[in-house]
UniProtKB/TrEMBL annotation:
The keyword Transferase applies. It is an enzyme of class 2 (transferase). This is histidine kinase. It comes from Pelovirga terrestris. Residues 135-346 form the Histidine kinase domain. The lineage of its organism: Bacteria, Pseudomonadati, Thermodesulfobacteriota, Desulfuromonadia, Geobacterales. Its EC number is 2.7.13.3.
Length: 363
């Protein structure tokens, strides 16, 4: 110990403030339970104020049942955070087990905090709902008005119009009906997977089946699909139907971006990071305009003439329900890379290994 450290210790020993006095000044309830002797070893004055029940604060059995027993049901680690409802108040608390015999808890009354957060979430939900309804009104309103005009024109028809004019009105009406049908199908897809059934599955097997399904249509459009996935990539925990829908949305976006490009190609690779596998889908298409990038995951935001802007919204929702995520990077006239993270079925036990060090599946 150097001179400065020794001086600090001596200064602390001369200070009128001890640890007990310091703990008494903290506005958070502090509780130490002696699990060996089954008694309250220490509690500060704030605990009585936080819990508002003197009998509870003095009873080891009741405190243990309220705070420790629920926590132990989840194999209590050295540190864990929980919530408990007591006498219509919600308490948040953290449990520390630095020693097998003692259990230290920090307790707060979070009832008001929870109430304010619930209000904020409700307001946010209503704002989002209003945004969605506004988009739906716009997406349905335009074709509905066009359809109405076409039908009114047919209604006022005198019968003297030529067949081409009548066919034009009919085709316009059918196209508008198709747009509304497409929107309703997209909205159905948004709510289709309200619940996912997660199970362990080989990512390689899933991708082989997925590519075999979509590859003929892409090849027919002149788009080549290349894959380079390590053969020993670990299993992931997914809902097969939900991931299929999410990737289908991503591939359809890539196909749109590749229209008119020379040597169109989609390249699929993977990278393991910690407890996640990142599935990367990169195309060499037209890329995304800078002004569009900040609105990629907003409903009804799209640059496609026939799109409705729900594809990426649905994709992010499906991935989130599988504890995954999506990130997009794009370069104008150079292409776009979509990165999808998926949770490994088991926590990784070794350092990530570069993908190019393994044999690969290559199409």
């Amino acid at each position: 110990m150097d001179g400065r450290a020794a001086g600090a210790v001596n200064q602390q020993s001369r200070s009128p403030w001890g640890f007990a006095q310091l703990l008494e000044q903290i506005d958070m309830g502090i509780l130490v339970l002696d699990l060996g002797r089954q008694q309250v070893d220490y509690c500060n004055a704030a605990l009585f104020e936080v819990l508002g029940d003197d009998l509870l604060c003095q009873s080891y059995e009741r405190l243990y049942a309220l705070f420790v027993t629920p926590a132990e049901q989840s194999d209590l680690p050295a540190r864990s955070s929980h919530q408990v409802l007591y006498q219509e108040r919600l308490y948040g608390y953290t449990v520390y087990r630095a020693d097998p015999r003692y259990c230290c808890l920090f307790v707060r009354d979070i009832t008001e905090k929870q109430r304010l957060e619930s209000i904020a979430q409700a307001i946010n939900a209503m704002d989002n709902l209003g945004f969605v309804f506004s988009g739906i009104r716009h997406e349905i309103g335009n074709p509905l008005n066009s359809l109405k005009m076409a039908l009114m024109a047919l209604q006022k028809s005198t019968g003297n119009e030529n067949r081409e004019t009548l066919d034009e009105y009919i085709e316009r009406a059918l196209a508008d009906v198709g747009r509304m049908e497409y929107l309703l199908k997209s909205l159905k897809a948004f709510s289709l997977y309200d619940r996912v059934e997660l199970r362990e599955m080989s990512l390689i097997e899933f991708m082989e089946k997925f590519i075999a399904l979509v590859e003929p249509d892409f090849h027919a459009g002149g788009i080549r699909i290349r894959t380079a996935i390590p053969l020993d990539i670990r299993n992931v925990r997914i809902d097969e139907r939900a991931l299929h829908q999410a990737l289908l949305n991503i591939f359809n976006n890539a196909a749109e971006a590749l229209k008119g490009c020379r040597d169109p190609e989609i390249h699929i690779t993977t990278q393991k990071r910690g407890e996640l596998v990142w599935l990367k889908i990169r195309d060499n298409g037209c890329g995304i305009k800078p002004e569009q990038r900040n609105h990629l995951f907003q409903p009804f935001n799209t640059s496609k003439p026939q799109g409705n802007g729900l594809g990426l919204v649905i994709t992010r929702k499906l991935l989130a329900m599988m504890n995954g995520d999506i990130a997009i990077e794009s370069w104008p006239q150079r292409g776009t890379e979509v990165r999808v993270s998926l949770p490994l079925a088991e926590a990784a036990q070794k350092e990530p290994v570069a993908a190019d060090s393994f044999p690969s599946i290559t199409n």
